[in-house]
Amino acid sequence: MRKKVIIGNWKMNKNKEETEYLLNNLAKKTWEKEINVKVCPSYVNLENAQNILKNSSIEVVAQNMHYEKEGAYTGEISYKMLKSININTVIIGHSERRTLFCETDEIIKKKVNIALKNNMNIIFCFGESLEDRKKEKQIDAINKQLDVLMDDVGINKWNQIILAYEPVWAIGTGINATPDQAQQMHKYVRAQITKRYNQELSNSVPILYGGSLKPSNSKEILSKPDIDGGLIGGASLNFDDFFSIIRSVDKK
Ligand code: PGA
């Protein structure tokens, strides 16, 4: 049985005080053990977040990292730095990194490799653009992105991977994929994992949905059989909305 995973990606939002407000409120709340909650504050707030959440089950996750261990890369952060403050999970391949920061599949592959090799867990994002969807090329588009993982990553490394299907046209737009559109894609991806690896692995990999998830649509989307949780941007910036999304998968 796969756990539900709810992740708040705060992107380039929230200063120290605002981050503390969200974290302190979250730390006071409880939910059933089967829900795995993670938050992704900005780099400057990671260590403070670790301290605030030290007695909580919520995991602090980095939004990005470089593909080298160290060196002359002004402005970048490496896995070695993250691990030194006990951050063991990182988002890789977010569409904003792909489009706004020109991250190619090649770069993403290097990031995946260094992360997995150094025992970091990854939240690997993939998703088609609006243009792909209009031309009904969404399967080709996501296959190309997923090949970065499936061509290279050995079966024994998949326990470090969470997948997140994030159609680019749904991110930050207020237009979510319909529950059926999302379920269809998740089911397809799971079938691909079975084909490339095996059924047991495919049953165990969490596949999250991201793209305009909010309290009004989370229950329906997140109850679909192949959707194991959500990667939430905008709605995770408001404590009540984020908590209400967590509550929507809580069976207690
Ligand atoms: P959104 O962002 O919830 O604001 O659409 C999702 C994401 O980028 O992970």
Describe this structure in words.
- The chain is an alpha/beta fold.
- The protein has one domain (4-248): Aldolase class I (TIM Barrel).
- It is built from eleven helices and eight strands.
- It has helices at 16-28, 46-52, 79-84, 95-100, 105-117, 130-134, 138-150, 179-196, 199-204, 215-222, 239-248, and strands at 4-9, 35-40, 59-60, 89-92, 121-126, 161-165, 207-210, 229-232.
- An eight-stranded parallel beta sheet has the order 3-2-1-8-7-6-5-4.
- Helix 1 links the parallel strand 1 and strand 2 (35-40).
- Helix 5 runs parallel beside helix 7 and helix 10 packs parallel to helix 11 (239-248).
- The mean pLDDT is 96.
- The structure holds 2-phosphoglycolic acid (PGA).
- Residues 9, 166, 171-172, 210-213, 231-235 line the site of 2-phosphoglycolic acid (PGA).
Structural class: alpha/beta
Name given to the CATH architecture: Alpha-Beta Barrel
Shape: globular
The unique ligands bound to this protein are: 2-phosphoglycolic acid
| Rg (C-alpha, Å) | 17 Å
Largest sheet, in brief, is:
8 strands, parallel
CATH topology annotation: TIM Barrel
Number of strands: 8
